[in-house]
Amino acid sequence: MPRIASTSDLHLLHQQLQNERSKVRTTITICAGTGCQASRSLAVMDALKSELNQNGQAQTTHIRPTGCHGFCEQGPIMVIDPGSIFYCRITPQDVPEIISKTVARGEIIDRLLYTDPVSGKKVSSEADVPFYRAQDRRLLAMNRRVDPCSIEDYIAIGGYSALAQTIGKVEPDKIIKEIMASGLRGRGGGGFPTGRKWEECRSAAGDEKYVICNADEGDPGAYMDRCVLEGNPHLVIEGMMIGAFAIGAQKGYIYVRNEYPLAVKHARIAVEQAYQYGVLGENILGTSFSFDVEVARGGGAFVCGESTALMASVEGRVGEPRPKDVHTVVEGLWRMPTTLNNVETWANIPSIMLNGSAWFAAKGTDRSKGTKILALTGHVKNTGLVEVAMGTPLQTIVFDIGGGAPNGRMIKAVQTGGPSGGCLPVSKFDLPVDFDLFAEAGSMIGSGGVVVMDNKTCMVDVARYFLTFLQDESCGKCVPCRLGIDRMLEIVTDITEGRGTMAQLGLLKELAETVAETSLC
Known about the structure:
By secondary structure, this protein is α/β, with parallel strands linked by helices.
């Protein structure tokens, strides 16, 4: 196992790995993310290894298990290179034919190809699948290029080169200015400018500073952070390291919710490998910069997605939020200045440092730059993870990528932003994905959940569902949330069961505004 002690060591290893991989004749990439594992992709992988060994093709064929490819409902997904041949809904029984025909002779098996539901045509190449073609996949496209449990795979595609070009070579203030110029805003909730957060933390007084990756992600229907951390954990670690160098931190935490066992596993493996290779620890790449990372597993509380509750949980205390009179960039973890960003935000940092702020800012709107990963679920034909440029209309996401509602029904609305967000009716589907425009319309992008609802959905039932969820997940610390949500749920339940009165609507509105404005989280 090579230990990387300098930038030249990293560059040399990168070249060696590329040379080794160029000798492989065929690469079979199979999704081994949580969704595809549920569809038995690991059994398919075992069958592949067995068949290749029996046929004597194991030496010339590389099997690469990867994180999520995005098109979750078509899993297990397989891509065979060269040719980018796209097979979906594979079973172990399909493997002998795949090896004997596609791998050995280059023949395409029609029954394993994706069928476009609109045109009825078979699609043989991954790039031609309409679900992918309408997207702008900067982060998600990297998932299929790496085995998440292999640091060598990550280094082979240029991993940690952004770190090498940054630490010891670019002044921390210049890094922060580059992030500010990119227009990157936090991908986990309200869209706060990332560069401003880093700047405030760097200027805050404190002997120690921390960076935290928030991978708690508790919104119903949201699983973007899970799939990025599962599929490319080293990308997240590299982003955290660049951020830590910029603000002056030497310690970081990856806080993963307990319900994401695969993300916890892959994050821990990635951290261990980074230490073994010398990418984490003391004097990284021969510089004076030292940095340590620890994976902290959450306790399953929705409220721990909130920054102060998350930090309390990391400290070993009950996960409860605290008042926001002092920001966490000034007084956060262990009462020290702390920068907290979510998985997707950290994952964007290396490419910004490699390609420049102008490259990142070239995508998106005036106030919302880059791309955004969305979890498209609900009453829609094509469910899965979607990555689009900011500014893409909801219409494009729901109908062009999602394929519209199944069974010929009409789409009624989408719910975005989880319990803190809102519902946008079909009349607002010309609205572009933009932090500020979504807020002005009465919703929010949040972490990126997009739940599509057809015309058989009762919106009052939707409100009751989210209120029930919030009632179950409330930590109970503050009165507005503890009592206000209970009372709102009572009123909405009365309405759904036929006992509602017009007089209750005014109280419901007043309660909703009070809870939103005065609760701690």
